[in-house]
Structures are given as C-alpha cells and as structure tokens.
C-alpha cells in the first residue's frame, strides 16, 4: 500500500484518497438521515400538540402526507415509522375490536405493533387529555328492593350521559353488568325471544321498561308515596329523621313548593319540637332542619339538668306520708268527642345525638344496646312502662306484643291508691283467654272522682246509664226531645226513656271520652256503651282477647277487660301493676314509701335414692362434702391463676356503683364473709374495678366484679375448652352414671402470689383484693380447665369426663363404677377440692348433664329446655332472634336438615334491621316442632361403620 513498496499494486486496490472519498460520502448520507429524522420528529410533535389542543375527543387520523407508508422498506440506518391509526373516543364493546394489521414476512419491512400496545397508548392519550375519568356501570344482582333498583337505574343513566355512549351500545353495556338473578333473567329473556321469533332488544328504554316490570312491584310508586306520607320522627334523633325525609322526598319528586316541604317536615317531628319551631318564622327546609337540630339540643340539655335536680332531691328526701295524686278531669266539651290529654307519664327515651352538630360530645355508653350517647335506663330499645291502676286481675297476655306495635293498654280504674311496683315483664305467647269466651267486656271508669262499673255491648242500640248512678253522682239531666220505649230489659214490660245526660268519663289515665247517655232504671252495671259509642269512636273489637282498640290523637289505646286471668291455673305471665316512670319519680320525690318485689322460680325436685353401699362410700368422704368451704385458704398448687398485663397499659381506677341501703348492707355482709374465709384482704392497689350483687336462682345473692376494664389490658391465654359434642361421643356403651359438682370451684384456686393487687375491687366501704380466683376474669375458665385436666388426666376419656366444675363418671358395670367413683373421690381429697352434694347424683341410669339427658340408650334433650322452646314467643327484635337461635343451635344435632330449616333466621340475623316475615315464621315453627319431637340419639360406636 505504501509508495515505497517493492510489490506491484493491484488494479482493484483502493488508494488512500479513495478511502477518504468513501468516508466523506458516508458522512454526507448520515447528515441527510439525521436531517430527515429531525424533520420527522418535529412533525410528530406538532401533530401531538394539535391532538391535545382539540376541543372534542373525536377520532382523527394522523396526516398521511407527512408520514411514509408503513409498508415501505426501511433503508439501513433509518428508524421504522408507524402507520396512521385512529384514536377512538370510547370503546368497551365486543363489536369494536381494534383491527389488527397483517404482519409481513418480507425481510426489511416494517411490522405493525401489537394492538394491546396501541390500546395502552390510546388510553394514555385520552387520560392525558383530561376528557375522561375511570368509571363503569355498577353491577346489578336482581334484588327485589325498590330503592336498590332505582339507585342502580339512576347510576346507569348517569353513566350513559357522562360517557356519551351510543344508544345502540347501551343495551350491551347493561347486559355485561348483570349478575346473579338478574343475569339469569336476562339469559332467559333472550332465549324466550329467540324461540318466539322476536327481534332482540336494542334500546335502553325498552330494557328499562322490562326490568321495571320484572324487578319492581306494580305499585312501587304508591309504596314510596305511602312511606313519604307516613314519615315521622318517632323515637329517632332529628338527623336520622331528616335523612329519611330527604331521601323519600327525592324518591317521590312531587314538585312541592318550599312552604309545602317545610310544613310536611315540621309535621313529622315530635310534638315538643313542633312547639319549639312554631315560635319561629320558617321559610325554607334547610332553615327548618337547622332549628330542629337546635331545639333538640336545647331539650336534651334541659332533660339533663332536670335529671340532675331530681337526683339531688331524691338523695335529700326523707320518709314522709304516702301521697296519692288525683287526676282532675277536663271540662266536658259541647259535642260528643273522643279525646285524651297528652300522656306525659311514659318513660322518656333519649336517642344518641353524637351526629348533631349543636350537641356537646357525649361519651356515655348504654349497657343494654351497647350504643353511645345514652344510659341503659334511657335506652330507646327499652320497653315502655305501662300505666295500670286497680287490684283486679287483668289480661296481659298480649302486653309485650302491644308495646312493640305501638299500642298502649288502658286498664280499669280503682278508687283505692295504687302502690308503685315495678317488675320485669316476662315474654309469653299471645294466646286467647278462655275465661273471656262467654263474657261481656267489663271494666271500671271514673266519673267525678267516683269509680263506676262499665260494660261495652255492641248489641245495645243506645248508650245507657243507670238512674241510681245519675242520682249518686248528681249529674245534670235534660229532657229527651224524642222519647222512646224499650222492651229488652224485661220481657213484657216497656220502659219509657225520657231523659238523657252528657257525661265525661275516663278509663285509666289515658282515655277520656264524652258521651251522651239515655237514663233508665237498671242494676246490671252503671254504664253501657252501645253501638253509638262504637260507631263514633271507630273502636275495633278483638273477639278472642275481648279488647277494644281506639285511636286518640294518632295514638292507639287498647281497653282491657277486668277478670281476664284464670285463677285456677298458674298464669303464664307474671301480673304487674305498673305506673309511669314520671309519676313514680314524682312519688319518690314526695317521700312516698316504696317497695320492690323480686320473684324467683323455685323448683323442688324429690331427692334421689342412693344405694346403701354408695351412701357408705360417700359418708367416708365427709371431709370434702361439707356444707360450705372451710374458712381457710386453699392450698398453693402448681397451677395458680396468673394475670399478665399488657406492657404500657393504663391501669383502671373506676368508682363504685351507687346502691340502695339494703343492697349496700347485703354487699357488706358478703364482703365480711369473704374476709372471714380469708378469700379477700384489704388492698392498696393502684387499680380498682367496681363490685355489684346479682340474685341467684335460689333467692340468695352473689357478688360479682365488673372486671371488664382489667380484662381489656390482660394478655389472653388460649387453653382449649372441651367441645360438648366430643364429650358425648365418648359415652358409647355406658349404662351407669354419676355426676359430681364442685362447690364454688373458682374459689378453690389461688391467685399467684404477687398478682393479688391486679384483682382489686371497690365498694363504698373500701378497697379489697382477691387471694383466690374470682368470677369474671378473662383467663379464669382456662385456669380452671387446666387444673381439672391436670388432676384427672389419668381417668379422662376412660371413665371420666370433665367440663369445668361438672365431673361425669360412666361405666357399664356397677362394680367398676363403684371403684372408679372411689378413685375420683380420693383424687379430689388429695388435692383438697370440695363437692356440693346437693348437685351431685350417684349411680343412676338417667342423669342431666350439660343441658342434655343421658340414658343407656343414648342422649336426649332436656325437658326443661324443650318446655322453654315450646313456650317461646315470636321474636320482636334481633336480640330475641339471637336468643332463640343460640338455644336452637345448641340442639341442632337433634334436627335433621337443621341448616336448611334455620337459613331464613340466619338471613334475619345478617340484616342490620329486624325483619320478620312469614318465611322466618315458618322456620321458627318448624324448629319448635322439631325440637319438641326430638328423637333419642344413640351414642356412636367407633368400632362399627356409620
């Protein structure tokens, strides 16, 4: 290659100048390519700016003049270019698939990119332009609920309007969002139309018409209007009533004026709130809502201040003479009316007001419904105390149902003062009273502070009062302008009715009525209310219960007859003479003497006969069968109850509960007995929880500790509690049973030394702490089961079962049973565990255990539990449903297909509100019938196939 080379240079060889010339040409080509690429990039940026600046998202192609064809071969060093494509406005349909370009197999040609990448780029462009937000049609599962469907329908139409969906595609969008029952209905509709040769549904309007016809009742507009018309505040707070009012107003869309809305809203409020709002001039609905919230807050402050003053008066009131208030009747109106004064003696309720912006923060929590904002004695779910006067026995079998339905019972009057006694109303089924089958409705009323006998007879054509009552009450009479004769009083004798009088009478404290009576001589009663009274008042008669229901100022009152309770047989409902809460508090503030009656069911069972050899065996263990625990501490065993607190937890220090003097003396006596037994000791603990007393089944009292505060900061231990079904499966082949019951089993376990201060409780007289394990601690069941398992471990599953303080010994031979019973008793003596002989049973073939009855043939339900289920009333709240469901679920093994039968009741429990339909009622009746005829279940034999 060099000039000085001795070798000759070939013809094809390039010189140095040729190499430089080739380099210059290559550089020139590269510059041209870079210029072309820069121009192309600038055109692309301009095109993108034009797309972003467009005022509508309509689809537009790239300018074909500025972009080469995608099918042109790419020269070496040149970037491939994308073919023009459309940017659609919106697509979510199967008919609008993005067309794919065929990929070429030629070398050097441009391949069209994957359509998924194009969709992502288009989505990014649409989102970057800001014209669309991410939204979709909600799903619809076909629930037959009016407001749910209307909400879904409105959401669909809003989606179509905002997204500007083509009407031809709306049906497909809706069909894709149907599921469950709605999807099944849509598929069936398509198949039916195909079989009938009908055209497919193409418009949303037609689909909406068909869906409304299927998923809405034909009178749904009437139902919504009725709800709107009947919208009342009731016992709810103002904010809840306002929310429902706004919702129903929007649903009905009646085009009412602002003044009409205000009048409707105020008319649904409580009367005391209406009185407050009538003092102001209100011109808008928002103004009415604002005033109602303020008025509610003022009334609540007034109620709290009144309650505080009442508490102070009660604490300072001394014993004085019993005063019985009398009720003065109002002046008689000029025309026959059926009126009653506003009843203000009922138990007042206060709903939670946390959402009221004008109310002060309230941290009070109700122990009845577990909701904040009120106390348990002011709980809205608490049954109202009814008003009753008199000593006659009255029919109250339907009392509980009427309380729930908003119907208040009006009982007979009596001239004697009524002693205020408050008792717990027992739930009972609503059954007809047989004694009323042949009786007229009789009750007592008050006229001029005198008690008179009254009969309601729908067969009597007039209202009649006896001449003797008119003379005794000195009632003014007038001449009858149209005298007439009646002959039904005495056969063959006609009586001329020439005088009449207008009388105002009252029944109880709630029903007052003025009626025109014709005067005649009779001695069957003082007054007879006939067809004219029933017609004027619209009274409704219940023939089975023999009651009359009247409506006074929108409030239903039920007039109850006297003598409606059978005295020969035990009543299913405890009789309760009750007065209103306000009147009771007034009597208390006046110093009236009051007494509370506490009832308890005592069932005496005949003592079981124990065989002589077994009785001899029991007598040899008298040291562990004493009538009471020894007055010393139990031994310090290896298993003690320990309390581990969460690190950094705040120690509780709660005040003691307020008690009556009698309750305080009972609590003092119990505490002193525990001190004498050395079970408790005075404490200097930094934490304390309150103590209270509760009645036992035998009429005695038990002290309980409210340990919830200390349990919340205690570390929980998870020792397994045995499953009852597993225990029963181990009884196969057993024919002889004995049951042992520990006496106050918790008190036979010591607290770990050093943890006593964590069990401190407070009463009025001081602070004490436990040295033995008390009731109420969160880990107490685990500790007790650990101890029993450790002590009886060699015998468990062989011939012994343990469930807390119940020990069951089972065998199929008497000799073996006696030996095993002796072994168990010796083990209990060794560990100093004491028995309660009154709850023990020895060597029997039929024994109750854990709610069941064990026999050699198998296990059966307890007769006591079955009797309770058979008499179980119809549930009126979610709490009643839970109680019945828990008891029925305990015996589910006795009901074939229990899950299917109880499914409607499970659905009721899942709902946030109580709903009891005929479906739940049928399930309720089936469960009761199945349990009342429950079979005897044989013990499983695991040595055989089953």
Automatic annotation (TrEMBL):
PROSITE patterns: RT_POL (PS50878), ZF_CCHC (PS50158). Residues 675-854 form the Reverse transcriptase domain. Residues 365-381 form the CCHC-type domain. Residues 315-327 have a biased composition (Polar residues). Transmembrane segments: none annotated. This is RNA-directed DNA polymerase. One of its GO terms (molecular function) is nucleic acid binding. Keywords: Metal-binding, Zinc, Zinc-finger. Residues 1-20, 88-107, 315-348 are annotated as: Disordered. SMART domains: ZnF_C2HC.
